[in-house]
Every structure is written in structure tokens, then in C-alpha cells.
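Entry 14. Structure prediction run on the chain below.
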Amino acid sequence: MKSLLVLLLISVCFNVCQAGQMYKYKDANGNWVFSDKPPQSEQSFETLKYSQAKNPSSKIKLYYVKNSEGFTLYGKNSFYTAVEIGFTSAITKKQFRKVIPARDSIALFHSDKKVGNINYRWALGDPSSVADNSPYHAPFSSPKGHTISQAFNGKFSHTNDYNKYAVDIAMDVGTYLTAVRAGTVVWVKDDYHMSGTTNYFLDKANGIKVLHDDGTFASYAHILMDTAMVKEGDKVVLGDKLARSGSSGFSTGPHLHFSIIKNVGLKNIAIPFTFVDNNGMAFTPKRAMIMVGTSKP
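Output returned:
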């Protein structure tokens, strides 16, 4: 029997955690497989033990401060980007929309009495920002050609506002994903290991979001579990490695789901964009195009 390789991936959780196990091995064609079931044939494999937060704490919090005139409702934003928040006052029935700067707290509303529950919505980014229409370099560094399997308005899954102008790029598991432009990392999730095409997987994809100077975000989805090479608050420049590609969440196979996101008023949507190749030529991504990785300056 071939030797058994054991790799322990240990995560420290400060919230309630749940543990699990998955298996990593190569199939008959030599491709890596990540599964919650061991291989059926006798072969070498690795067991990956992981833990993940069951109920992560919210980064948007509302709280009251009592003063001589009553109560002031404050909003606290722990993201490294501005956040827009909206709610309806249970007392005046008026609608309020405010932008809370990154890593800051502001007063949202004042009243004579404190209201117990407040229903609110929020969206990443400042809706007043204006996209500068800069072209974006390839979101990976591999010199190997990678095929665009689904582009703008793709009929399979690019049909809603958040995905309409997304691009799916087929690539092997473990391909390095890179920054398409300088910015600040504002979202990192790499704690999920499975994939599927049922509704259960719609919110499970791992991903990274990078904020640009014009207020847009580059979104990288389906990254491989436990491969993020950056953390929230990190500054990155063009070509910096962010993570490795995978197939987590709602996915039919290994690929990168890439999009440029903007807040248009309590709603994040994908917006059209162009890529630029290593010769400086801009192009609109189309299905079946082959892209090569970015040459880091």
C-alpha cells in the first residue's frame, strides 16, 4: 500500500466553530480532486482537517447612546471601505440613507425614545463614487492560456444585476489569482470546501474583494479553501498574488468568477469593463476567448 500523507490545516476561531474533514487526491487523469469522501480505489491521498466560523460576527453594528435630549442611534462600520446603510424610522416612518466611512462610526438618527429592533439594509461602497473605466489586467499570473467559459450576459448564471457583467475563466485548481489593479483588500472568505449547483451553494463561494481608488471593487469568487494570501486591510498593487483558484460554492467545475462591482444605491451590481493584454491592447471579454496571465511590472 502506498504511504498515507496527512496534512493538518489548523484554523483558530474566536466564534463558535464546527470541524470537518475532506480528502485531496488525484483522479485517473492526474487531476486534483477535493472531496468529503475518500477515493474508491487504493491510492495515496491527503486528509485536510478544517474548522470554520459557524456564526461570524457582523461588521455593521447599530447601537444607541443616551444623552440629555434622548437617544442617538449610531452606525459602526468595521470594513476597510465605506458602507451605505438604509432604514426606516419606526417613530417618524421616514427613510434614512447614510454613508459610513471605512472603519468609522457616525450618528444616524436621534429620537426621544429607544426603538428595540431596527430593520436595515447595507451595501459595500459609496454610491456617489464614479467608475473611471480603467482597463483591467488579467486576474491571474499563469502564462498558460485560459478560456473564458462564460462572459457578459451568460445564459447559465450571469443573468442578474450582480452577475450580468461577470466573466468565468476556466483554470486548473491552484492557479495563482492576482490583483488586476492597485487597491485595498476589503473582503476575504476562504473557509468553504465544497461545490454544487443547488440553491444551497449560492452563498457558499469563497471570495476576495479589492477596493480601487474610483470606488469600484474587483471580485474574485470560487477561490480554493485556505489559500488566501492577503487579509482585509492589506494594500496590493497590480500583479500581487491574492489566492489560488478553486471551485467553491455554486460551481460546475474549477474556474474564476471575476467581476467589477459598484454600489448604485443600497445595491451592489456588476458593471461592464475591459481587460488589457500584456501588449497594452484593451479588449472586451467574450466567450471562448483565450487569456494569458499578467506580466507583473
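Residues 170 and 255 are 4 Å apart (CA to CA).
Filed with the rest of this week's runs.
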